[in-house]
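[SOLVED] Need 3D model of a two-part complex

Original post:
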Amino acid sequence: MRSFLGRAVGCTVLLVGSTTAFGQDDDPMSWDRRISRHVKKYCFSCHSEDTSSGNVNLAQDTDVRLLLDHRETWQKALVAIETGEMPPQDEERIPDEKRLELIAFLKKTLNEVHCIDPSSSSIQELSQLDPGPPLLRRLNRREYDLTIQDLLHINVELSKTFPDDALSYGFDNIAQSLSVSPLLIEQYHAAAKLAISALQANHDQVNSVRDSLFGMDDATPSIDTVEEAIASFAQAAFRRPVDDETVRRYRKLYERARDNADHATSIGYVLQAILISPRFLIRIEQNQLDQEAAYPVDSHELINRLSYFLWSRPPDQELRTIAAGESTISLATLNQQVARMLADPRSDALIEGFFEHWFDLHQFESHAVNTEAFPAFNMQLQQSMLAEVRGLFRELVRQNGKVTDLLSADHTYLDATLARHYGIDGDFGDEPKRVALSDRRRGGILSSAMWLTTISDPGRTNVPRRGNFIAGQILGTPAPPAPPNVPALETVATRDGPRSLRQRLEQHRADATCATCHAKMDPWGFALENYDAIGKWRAEDNSVPVDAMGQFNGQEPFVGPEGLKNALLDRKQEFIRSFAKNLLIYALGRGVSGIDECTIRSIVKSGLENEDRLLPMVQSIVQSVPFRFRVNPIDR
Amino acid sequence: MTIPGLRLLSSARGASSTERPPVRTAFFYVPNGVNMADWRPTDSERMDELPTILKSLAPVKDRVSVISNFAAEHCHATGASHEPAGGGFLVGAHCKHSEVPEVGNASVDQWIARKHGQNTPIESLALGIDPGHRGDHGYSGTYMSHISWRNKSTPVPLELNPKHLYHRLFHGQAPNKRSSPAQTSIDSIDSNVLDLVREDANRLQRQLGYSDRLKMEEYMEGIRGIEKRINIAAQDSHSHHQDSFRDDPHAHDDDPGIDKLIIPDGKGIPSIYADHVNLMLDILVTAFQTDTTRVASFLFSYEKSGRSYPQLDAPGAHHSTSHHQNEEKNLSQLTRINCHHMELFSRMLQRMAAIPEGAGTLLDNVAILYGCGISDGNSHSNEDLPILVAGGAGGRWQGGRHLKLDTKTPICNLYLEFLQAMGIEQSSFGDSTERFQRLSV
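Solution:
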């Protein structure tokens, strides 16, 4: 029943003119009768299940709904067909009439999305939309530590012994990849015991949690007092009100333990049971069985979503008070809270969880620089690099900065070590300080030593890798994967003296099989060639002067970081869309698909209409249907 | 000959003293393929002269067979090479092209663990050295860092830290010391706690969708695991684990010694790669020796690893070097990396060969695979894989040979032989066509 409903909802929302799409035999816009046949005839020989050339598989989309699920692929296909890039020269051409039909169909289907504004629509209207599947989200390592700290008021990092959380889409908080395994449960069990000992041992400081649970050791605290303490702890641990039945069961456990043990030991068992309960370890939301369509999550669930999104931790007192007071939290209140939470230092968790993962900077610490080739690289420099990037991210997040500052900023954060590395004169000390920059060689993440180092090989720069990151992550248009049997990069390189990497790469690109992909990424990387493998400015590579010119086929060339920054700012819309999409993935803990098109568009719109600022984009996510709504599981 | 460790082991489990030691199995994975020219033995059957990469196996050569021409068709995918090679290697089916990982089934080691896990305190181990990396081209990075899969969507989490691993396996007790057991009395309250938690999970289970139910089942499995360990500790409170350390003549051969690094407050992860690997493998040997587990997998690094090996004069990123472009400089670096991994592996085999067990040694009672889902790293070929097996599989396997097969023999045929060695009769696994029987004595 639900799956039928879900499908029907998708069609009415996304497909204007769906009646014509499924029309008569002679309707040129009929997918079944005409368009799918064109695609089959002219595209499938390269883009089907068996041979998905360039990682593009068009054959899997057997109906319009699936096609819309893979909107981005078809968007690229549309461009390729329109520009004549596809089908390629050596394949059969599409006759003009069919080609125009195909283009018209794709344009209509892909572009005419009917979106409604989630901030000004009724619950009834919004509940007809698809918020995506309901998913259990296990706390990841960062969330676990912060949750324990908030809950017990102790400063421990117990997740160090846990296995790393799997990355999907580059992030460590994706619901379906946060698997639960017996090993992990075993470690949660051990961590729970450690946390309880740490709480009991924490005598030096005032700790209200400890006092309320263990502080009543005057031999026999009354069972009612104990029950009260258990109830309030369980409520905090499970992050929502708990029912009497649950409290009663914990009380029973306490009483059983109390037969043979003292109060502290007995309450310890209760805490143990709570801290390895799935209700604590996993973020669980309640089904509302009377609902057929989507429905807003309750106010406790909403503040949890918000708090784990921006802070990777449970809601604080202010949020809890709001949830306790209002069964439906108004959008105005939500907006205020988002502003407060981003300005709060606890938003550092968003920097670590989202920004650093998006830019692959979490790899920085384990990135092994070849210190023989780069003796300047040491722990101090590493710290200074990190401090610069943290400074940039913090300003963006806490002060509602412009997301375009990630690409190009007129300021940065330097201490003496990094200023020396950058060759910037001035009065710098051990602490990083904000400085205005006089030129555009620095400023922004893409010209920061930290990112430039992380995205290099240990001993040299990696032009395609840098370029591929910009094309894929920054602009959202990843190049297709390399074909097998990549031909030699350097076979004739040694014949006539030293050559720069660029010359060798250009030679490599002369090969037609390599050219198509590299032409889409290398130019970005070339423009960054003035930065070596630890992000230091250089004029020469391998004794050859650096040529930092990048150029895409038939377009204006751009030179060096300044040219690159301008070229990227010219494509601001694509960047903001890619940013919005990634932030939405992080916020929802799932991949995005066709059902999320309206949400992505509204985030982008909020950014573009507000000087590219972060706060309105985050507010837009928090207001969106997938963030505020859920559906019951289909096969419950 | 009486072996104290084993006697303790069998009496603890109530087995008869004439019973053979159990066969234990492990799967070793090296990333990025190998330099095949320095791997492939030249003569067809006897390995009189070992090729460069295999040289270090000389002391245990008669317990090793190198097998040429195995292929892993299931590791092939259009659009990505390293992800499906790692993730699919032990599964025998293609990996789903998705950021949320999904493999065809449980991997062969976990298939075995399912059967043998009940007999040991720890069901299985999945060990590694490096955390993983973001995937590429829409493939999950999890594929590159995980070869062991409990089911199609749950990778076995990788344990990287020897200190934490050691504490988990042996309750943090110093080896070589007979101390009082960690758990003196098992409170029945412990099981009350777990009962309560289980009840909680059961109530939740009912309201979940399919994929989340699977997650909750894994949770319940974990709770059962804790119970099992508590029970084993209760029955076997004299902890045979500590005793058996004294039976290993090589337990303290190397610096850094296991106890210095791990106990009581070592830093956990050694800064030198070889030390880290040795420590993990020492713990693995001990876990096998004490029958703490019978199944393990080990990753020398994740697939597509860019680890640099400056200490071997191979300072480039391993992955970049593996795209050697037939350049001598790259090939020689690659060979050095391949040799290094093999030396560390060989050291472990030699330790196993020095541990008496039953009528032979521990090495006689293990079934070990070493290999990669990619042959040549430059071309990402999934044919003619670098594969070798080690151990006697409890008297089943003969070593000291190079076996050359028909081209494109599915590696899953070999997995059937592993299953058989572990007492699991099965007619097919993954894309197997028949059981590979040529290892048999």
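Edit: The longest strand of chain A covers residues 411-414.
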